[in-house]
Design brief:
The protein is mainly alpha-helical. It is built from eight helices and no strands. Helices cover 55% and strands 0% of the residues. α4 packs across α5 and α6 (90-101) packs antiparallel against α7. The chain is elongated, with a radius of gyration of 27 Å.
């Protein structure tokens, strides 16, 4: 029975010595980016207006439950002038290094300094401070 099934499968396959069949092109449907599907034009305009009124990208990201990068993308698409992003001063970086070395989390430090945790992480990396594993494992 298995031999017959294999023979039938082999008969259905194209001839290996013959020309290769032309590849079939499948049209890929244009799918909008998830962000474009989730937010209407009015919602994106509302985000841009809130930013122009003084809201920070971090505040908007929390309010709209989006990543900061998504908020920045919406603002750029709207032609909004992006304000300079806050950088940590040398004193703030010194404080972050000390706090981190004493076991404080990046999130707690970033909340205290009112910046994203990635800003703190980048500053620590520039100082050569090795990252801890958040689950207590050694890296």
């Amino acid at each position: 029975m298995q031999v017959e099934a294999l023979e039938q499968l082999l008969a259905a396959l194209p001839d290996p010595d013959g020309p290769a069949p032309a590849p079939t092109k499948r049209p890929s449907p244009a799918r909008p980016h998830r962000l474009q599907r989730r937010l209407t034009t009015n919602q994106r305009a509302e985000i841009a207006a809130a930013y122009d009124a003084g809201a920070s990208t971090k505040q908007l990201a929390i309010q709209w439950q989006l990543a900061k990068a998504s908020i920045l993308s919406i603002l750029r698409d709207a032609g909004t002038h992006i304000r300079k992003q806050r950088r940590l001063s040398e004193d703030e970086i010194d404080h972050a290094v000390t706090s981190y070395q004493h076991g404080e989390s990046l999130n707690r430090i970033s909340d205290r300094l009112n910046v994203a945790h990635t800003t703190v992480r980048s500053a620590l990396e520039r100082r050569g401070i090795p990252r801890r594993d958040s689950h207590g494992r050694s890296r």
